[in-house]
């Protein structure tokens, strides 16, 4: 357990050293969302209609921005080689990395979300539904993102490629998440949508660390 | 009698072998770097890999520690394929590559402490300070690695050789790069001590190795 705990602590320390880099996607997220009321006008009905989708799309885009941090530095400075030769189980290493990434890059988005819900005139029921989909859905972004980052880490300038690889994969998540919030707006139950997102999350949790580990090993070739 | 003595000698020799390669071929970017390479390194043995740029020295070392896959052939650690015993193999290996493996934003202490924990070595912070002092890095322990010079960064990375007491094999890729003369002699002594205590070393270097120790040379040629 100690090696993984040490890795967790190291990544948190690093995140603290890279505060500025972490805040950028957060500000991007806020700016994108706040552009919509200006762009489409302040009509509450329109904003309420597009609100959940806007927040989710902005969350996906801003999570893509910081995603490369996951393995890029470790690959470039050779820490990844040492990690591969440390004898720790690589899937667990990947899982720890994803966890710290979620805690440092995505959790702040969730903390900001009440403010943005206010921008977009979401009512309380809609906000709780949105928060539930974000809590269940954003770890999925990190888990799947880790596979793509591990695959592209050996390429220089993998940034755009990363977006091209990942955005199509996130479409189902986006559909179920926004439909849950729409259901909440009509005071309908949205357990089914949450259950599907939860199932996707569990599936990714079980398999993504192995895929990431494999991709990281291949990246050394 | 003679036959059994010979057999005994062979068995003894085999148990001493730490790392061996059998019919190793490596292809990189559609170019065959070397093929059917056979060698073995025993306890206390030093294998010195020589060759011009592009001959495949780094690739060979990466194959030996399991980072790179070979096209054919196998690498054995104590008579077992490295992929089947990877955790015990990695527990007894120190690899030192071109990349230092140090995060530029973290300090020497943070980097090395993390490395020791990751490699399950019981090393206290005081020991890390002591070793850094031995490597003439007093006063630089808590600066971010990015603020140190290239040679100082290499010294910090080399401190790992002092910490991994469970290691019986060192694979060193150009360990002398960027080091000054005092750094080189420090490292030479460390390598000699390790060899005398029964460790095995595989290394490459463009400098002549002024090491007072019998070495086995492996010369790779550049192939087109």
Automatic annotation (TrEMBL), chain A:
Q: So where does this one cross the membrane?
A: 21-40, 46-67, 102-122, 128-153, 160-181, 193-216
Query: Per the record, GO CC terms?
Result: plasma membrane
**Where in the cell is the protein located?**
Cell inner membrane
The protein's predominant localisation is: membrane
Q: What are the record keywords, sorted? A: Cell inner membrane, Cell membrane, Cytochrome c-type biogenesis, Membrane, Transmembrane, Transmembrane helix, Transport
Question: Which Pfam families does this one have?
Answer: CcmB
Signal sequence region = none
UniProt key word Membrane: yes
Q: Which GO terms describe its biological process?
A: cytochrome c biosynthetic process; cytochrome complex assembly
* Molecular function terms from GO: heme transmembrane transporter activity
Q: Does the keyword Transmembrane apply?
A: yes
Q: How does it sit in the membrane?
A: Multi-pass membrane protein
Q: Which NCBIfam families match?
A: ccmB
Family membership, please give it: Belongs to the CcmB/CycW/HelB family.
Function description? Required for the export of heme to the periplasm for the biogenesis of c-type cytochromes.
Entries under PANTHER family matching the protein: CYTOCHROME C BIOGENESIS B-RELATED, HEME EXPORTER PROTEIN B
Q: What is this protein called?
A: Heme exporter protein B
| Species per Swiss-Prot/TrEMBL record | Paraglaciecola hydrolytica
């Amino acid at each position: 357990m100690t090696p993984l705990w040490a890795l967790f602590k190291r990544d948190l320390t690093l995140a603290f050293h890279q505060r500025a880099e972490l805040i950028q996607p957060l500000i991007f997220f806020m700016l994108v969302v706040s552009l919509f009321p200006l762009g489409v006008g302040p009509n509450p009905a329109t904003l309420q209609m597009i609100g959940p989708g806007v927040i989710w799309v902005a969350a996906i885009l801003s999570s893509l921005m910081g995603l490369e941090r996951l393995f890029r530095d470790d690959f470039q400075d050779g820490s990844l080689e040492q990690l591969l030769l440390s004898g720790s189980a690589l899937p667990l290493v990947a899982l720890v990395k994803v966890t710290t990434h979620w805690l440092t890059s995505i959790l702040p988005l969730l903390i900001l979300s009440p403010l943005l819900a206010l921008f977009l005139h979401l009512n309380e029921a809609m906000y709780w539904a949105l928060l539930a989909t974000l809590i269940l859905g954003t770890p999925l972004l990190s888990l799947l993102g880790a596979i793509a980052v591990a695959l592209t880490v050996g390429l220089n300038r993998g940034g755009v490629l990363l977006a091209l690889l990942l955005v199509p994969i996130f479409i189902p998540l986006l559909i179920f998440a926004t439909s849950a919030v729409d259901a909440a707006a009509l005071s309908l139950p949205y357990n089914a949508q949450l259950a599907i997102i939860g199932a996707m999350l569990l599936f990714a949790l079980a398999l993504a660390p192995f895929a990431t580990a494999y991709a990281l090993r291949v990246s050394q070739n | 009698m003679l036959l059994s003595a010979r057999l005994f000698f062979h068995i003894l020799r085999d148990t001493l072998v730490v790392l061996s390669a059998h019919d190793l071929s490596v292809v990189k970017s559609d170019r065959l770097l070397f093929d059917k390479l056979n060698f073995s390194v025993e306890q206390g043995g030093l294998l010195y890999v020589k060759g011009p740029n592009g001959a495949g020295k780094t690739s060979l070392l990466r194959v030996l520690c399991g980072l790179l896959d070979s096209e054919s052939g196998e690498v054995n650690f104590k008579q077992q394929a490295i992929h089947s015993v990877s955790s015990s193999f990695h527990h007894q290996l120190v690899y030192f590559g071109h990349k230092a493996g140090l995060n530029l934003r973290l300090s020497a202490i943070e980097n090395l402490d993390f490395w020791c924990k990751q490699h399950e070595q019981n090393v206290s912070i005081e020991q890390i300070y002591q070793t850094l002092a031995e490597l003439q890095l007093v006063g630089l322990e808590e600066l971010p690695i990015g603020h140190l010079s290239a040679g100082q960064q290499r010294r910090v990375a080399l401190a790992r050789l002092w910490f991994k007491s469970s290691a019986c094999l060192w694979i060193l890729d150009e360990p002398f790069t960027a080091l000054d003369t005092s750094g080189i002699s420090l490292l030479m002594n460390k390598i000699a001590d390790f060899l005398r205590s029964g460790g095995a070393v595989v290394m490459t270097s463009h400098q002549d190795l002024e090491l007072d120790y019998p070495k086995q040379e492996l010369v790779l040629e550049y192939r087109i």
